[in-house]
Amino acid sequence: MKIAIIDADLLGRKNHSFPNLVCMKLSGYYKELGHQIELKINYEELDNFDKVYISKVFTDTIIEDHILELPNVEYGGTGFYYDKATPLKYEIEHHMPDYNLYDKWVQEMIDGGAKRNKLEYYLDYSIGYTTRGCVRQCDFCVNRNSKKVELHSPINEFLDKDKKYICLLDDNILAFPRYDEIFKGLQSTNKYFQYKQGMDIRFMNDKKVEILTSSKYRGDYIFAFDNIEDKSIIEKKLKLWKDSCKKTTKLYVFCGFDRDDSWDKEFWKQDIVNVFTRVKSLMQYGTLPYIMRFDKYDESPYRGTYINLARWCNQPNFFKKKSYREFCEANGENSATVRYMKEFEKDCPDIAKMYYDMKYEDLNKY
Asked: What's the CATH number where 82 sits?
């Protein structure tokens, strides 16, 4: 057969910089069966193919309905079905990814002036899961129906020995009872590796600190601080971590999600307080926040504050040197950034007084 594979996020999102693992597994599986595979980078002339597979990870990637209704099209992934996505067939799920699927597109990007480091996940990484599942059942998460972490695949199942690095997509590796076996397996490859998802620092202990800090870990360590109610346990674990690790550590700060489903103005106000409070804690422990906004933030009366917070926190060079107020003012008196800052301060002066002028360099105990 002549098969087209479409990474919908690649076509529908700006600056998308991570390959679709499902697309690579589909390609690897069907190539091995002798079929002709093409990574399609548009939605034109799809009737020229016997089969078209479309996958997406993000729910807000737009695909026109008439494309999905074509008789030769099959589609799937969390971007379509979120937590109810149908699993891949076993033979596909556990097939070696085709790491050459994106080669032509990558070369076109480089020829067009793209920097190689922006394409490193297409070029330099073996990508896969060693475990799947989580124990937390967070309402907002794609794993909310999961109750445990289970072994998924051996590292060799997705390891390309010619790739320099390994990227793990495990949902909650630190909750896996046999996590030490996974790390020993990774260490035995003698390759640098990283976990792409925010690891669950609430499961941190002395042994896990030792294993993580002694591994060939690539890039920043990334954990998650999703809920203000975890502040005390997060701070306790951060102290344990920072007493041993001097390397840059980031924590995802999830916001804009109302667990009580009220979505009223008081929720939005308190959610902003919760963000600032978590940011302050991370400052104190010499770590960096990365703001992750639930898409409903766009409906908030404080939408501009969410935008400002993300721009401030998600740029470490600014975050380390400037308070929130200083960052906003640096954008210019007539900027939307300053307008958003002043609007929130007028509505919530006590909150602004408490948090607008705190600085990383003043609070950092490390």
From this structure: 3.40.50
